[in-house]
Amino acid sequence: MTGILRAASLLSALFFASTARADCECGYTVNGTLYTDLTESDFLHMKNINESGWVPQTYTIKPEDARGPFGKDASPKQIALNPLKSRYDWAGNGIKGGDAGAQIFVRGGDPGKGGLIPMGEMSTNRTDMLYGSYRAGVKLTGTPGTCGAFFWYFNDTQEIDMEFLSAQFNATSHPVNLVLQSEASVAAGFNAGKTDAFQVHQLPFDPSDAFHEYRFDWFQDHVDFYADGVLLKTMSGDGVPSDPGHLTLSQWSNGDPTWSGGPPETDAVMTVNYVKGYFNSSDTQRQGDWRKRCKNINAPNATCEVPEITAPPQGNVSAKTFFFSQQHNMTVNQTIPGDNPNTSKSGAWSIRSSSQALSTTLLLFSFVLFMDWWS
């Protein structure tokens, strides 16, 4: 009996110690807005795209459907990971040479009359992404004739785009096209330029010279667009999406002289060093998980503020941006990719939950009872 009481006392101590509150249990805040879920991808150190939460896309679109003289041929072959040589570095050439990160290609050369232009596109496997703050560190191509894009997508009438047309880059012009695709843009022949949810914004830097962070914060009634933490434009109105969707990174060309131009004469590469999203999930299971883990939203460290970018993410200092998923105890019950240098399960998905602590505690309790019986 004494052994059982001693074991029970130890069980209680172990359980409460192992289920002590973790940081960020109630979520992540951006400018005072709370988001329950996160997705973070560190492409500077990633070696396996299949374990990353991103899916390289495969499809073909004929010229008549691509709305250009050429069609599109999306293939996983046009997505290549080029991680840094050392897990301790945050800048420099990748193991294959050139810029480190996820490389998205458009292949150069003439595909022939009515031909398909090889291109790369990858999307998140999560499709439950609602209102949130989404950002990516990207270096665009300087090769004329492509459209590089970072966007959120539900369908052709609900889409948030940041698009870069490399043919528009020159010594005095470095524009980004900010777009809300909507029912109005579809009615205008998929031309958002004929709606009020489109703006060409000149950037104070050349997007093809270095990495910069591009970001959009999506709210119920408006979308804010940023570059390197600086607000570029706020869009509101009927074009603001209302359904959950996914993130996509792509680079493509269809030869349309009014948009992508091209095809490029030589291979064009767009490189991504990270993607981060802090958002509210539409999934009822994820919503239930949040209610279970967030017992007191006002408790110390129950919410964590997302650090803002104040300088372009390049060089070993500024490129080492903050990842909650690379910190201890800051992603409890979050589904995160394990293929990064600072997580314990390389190349695997891990769901961190207090249930793991309970299992460990029960195992220790059984061991204590056995040892008491044996003695």
Question: What does the model show?
Answer:
There is one protein chain. The strands form four sheets. Strands 4, 5, 6, 9, 11, 12, 13, 14 and 18 form a nine-stranded mixed sheet that branches. Strands 3, 7, 8, 10, 15, 16, 17 and 19 form an eight-stranded antiparallel sheet that branches. It is globular and about 65 Å long. Helices cover 16% and strands 35% of the residues. It is built from six helices and 22 strands. The protein is an alpha+beta fold.
What descriptive keywords fit this protein?
alpha+beta, eight-stranded antiparallel beta sheet
Q: Separation of termini? A: 13 Å
Number of strands: 22
By helix and strand content, what is the structural category?
alpha+beta
- Percent range for helical residues? 10-25%
N to C succession of SSEs:
HEEEEEHEEEEEEEEHEEEEEEHEHEEH
- Strand fraction equals 35-45%
| Tally of alpha and pi helices | 6
Low-confidence segments, given as residue ranges, are: 10-20, 339-361
Shape: globular
Mean pLDDT: 87
Radius of gyration: 24 Å
Largest sheet: 9 strands, mixed
How do the strands and helices of this protein lay out in sequence?
Layout: H1 2-18, E1 27-30, E2 33-35, E3 37-42, E4 54-56, E5 59-61, H2 63-66, E6 71-74, E7 79-82, E8 101-106, E9 116-124, E10 129-139, E11 147-155, E12 158-165, E13 175-181, H3 183-187, E14 198-202, E15 212-218, E16 222-227, E17 230-236, E18 246-252, E19 268-281, H4 284-293, E20 303-305, H5 315-318, E21 335-337, E22 349-351, H6 354-374
Parallel strand pairs: 1-20, 6-9
Antiparallel strand pairs: 1-2, 3-19, 4-9, 5-6, 7-8, 8-19, 9-18, 10-15, 10-19, 11-12, 11-18, 12-13, 13-14, 15-16, 16-17, 21-22
Helix pairs in contact: 1-6
